[in-house]
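## tool: complex_structure
## caller: assistant
## args:
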Amino acid sequence: MLHEIPKEEILEKLKNIGAKKVLIQSPEGLRREAEELAEFLEKNEIEVILHGEINYGACDPADHEARLLGCDALIHLGHSFMMLSLEVPTIFVPAFAKVNVVEALKKNLHEIKKLGKKIIVTTTAQHIHQLERAIEYLKSQGFEPVVGRGDNRVSWPSQVLGCNFSVAKVEGDGILFIGSGTFHPLGLALATGKRVLAVNPYSGDCQWINELAERFIRKRWAQIAKAMDAKRFGVVISTKRGQLRLNEAKRIIKLLKDHGREAKLIAMNDISYSKLEGFSFDAYVIVACPRVPIDDYENWRKPVLTPREVEILLGLREEYIFDEIPGGVREKDEPLGISLHSTR
Amino acid sequence: MLHEIPKEEILEKLKNIGAKKVLIQSPEGLRREAEELAEFLEKNEIEVILHGEINYGACDPADHEARLLGCDALIHLGHSFMMLSLEVPTIFVPAFAKVNVVEALKKNLHEIKKLGKKIIVTTTAQHIHQLERAIEYLKSQGFEPVVGRGDNRVSWPSQVLGCNFSVAKVEGDGILFIGSGTFHPLGLALATGKRVLAVNPYSGDCQWINELAERFIRKRWAQIAKAMDAKRFGVVISTKRGQLRLNEAKRIIKLLKDHGREAKLIAMNDISYSKLEGFSFDAYVIVACPRVPIDDYENWRKPVLTPREVEILLGLREEYIFDEIPGGVREKDEPLGISLHSTR
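## result:
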């Protein structure tokens, strides 16, 4: 197992709240851990249902499903709490990776130095438990690392989501991203305009992101161009509560109508083109998770844009801007471990 | 448009209940009609959201989503009401096909006669509005047509669903099915053991089903054989309210455990194998819509069974039996047109 689930601790929390029947929700990478946890809880007389839907983030807790299924608690594996009201008490179990972040920084010190001295340090929830050690190490090497607090869509300072780069909007020479994949560092580059170096603690490699970001923007301009003559737009929102941006969708629909286009509001849960094929829209705008139009556009036979790209399409904006979902002011950080959030 | 949606009538009903904002839910075949209805309602000052999820039946009304999205009514296109409690007032708009059923019966009279004199007449919701004419015609040709009342999972006498063949469980020489596709007549043959002739009013063709049913049973036995050595079973239920068979799933889990197998309960909305790939189960049992394991099994890389097939697997049943979802006693039939159902 790549991730260790604190089973005893979860059981104790369940006993504290008197939960007898729980739903376990998991992302694709934690399916085996979910099964193992189910096994353990069942041996301890807790009735368990595994949630079969794949979860992509704390923006989509299955608390409603838990209540519907008669469960008195939800266990949400893989993510920390996001500010949402919940229908049943929910235990959030973030998954911290067991790779050594400082080793990867050491290996790439030469490149990191090119960022400058005052570097904004960012990472994902998987590595947040090693942030302090990373900061110490960077300080020992003469850097002045900057940790951005961010808003309440994230759980901790320095944490980025695919839809929120608020922690990087601080002063600094350049951005160090610690984590895997290109989506987060790409978002960082686009959301801040700063130089971004991504250090991957799994592979030990690093990658400069800004050239990638330029290629990305060219691709997005091509999508915008393809939608230029579209007359009828489907503006898609998601019923996943942490992605439900109804007001933003209404703003986009008004913009489109004010500029002589037609637009209809479409609501769904998991957004995919195959479900929409029967409709006759010329183009789509996704006002939900920004990853949908950006990561998945090759599977769409119609142009598919972010709300920000619609502003460009209509001539209301010149510079490319990344679609983010902002939060409010965060009162306190989440614990670096499991946390129980009650209904309100 | 293949189907005519009674737009004015729907608008009137919405005005009667004071609805200002509605969600329109539609099956794949009625997407354009949904758009057209949205256009019409918007022109009449009703705010509209289109539901982007594909709907497969009245077993899955989007009333919860409607409430979540702040709508004060749901319009459910394509199906009549199924006995479920609703979170917002819902207008059910069945879709009646414009093909001529009697013409198709005339064309296939020679084959229909082979069924015998006392024939059980069955059809789907699409053709139910022509049932009376079909009965009259059959009587005029010397038949003694039998119309089964069925239970309250269906809306009208003679109506079959993919999960309910209660209308056919009456006395008669053989079964006449009027409709398209092979799933319903296959279910009729398997649920009753009677000879079934399917007359397709779209193509005008007819097909004897019983040979198909034998081939089908052989395929299902092959699935059962593939699962024979499976140790760990995922027993899958759906959160679609009209498919939520929690007690049946618990019965199956108990049966499996009593016979030395392991079993875990999995809940999801749309059931598909791709979402379950990360789990380590050896085989799956679908305790939801019977079409999932039967129509879709080729997309599963693990054996996938119905609850009834588990009984065969465990040696508790010898004869093949179709998985049905039974209803209770129906108090009255649904109207042959739109109907408004309130929250209770």
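## assistant note: The domain at 220-313 of chain B is CATH 3.40.50.11860 (Rossmann fold). DSSP finds twelve helices and 13 strands in chain B. Handing back to user.
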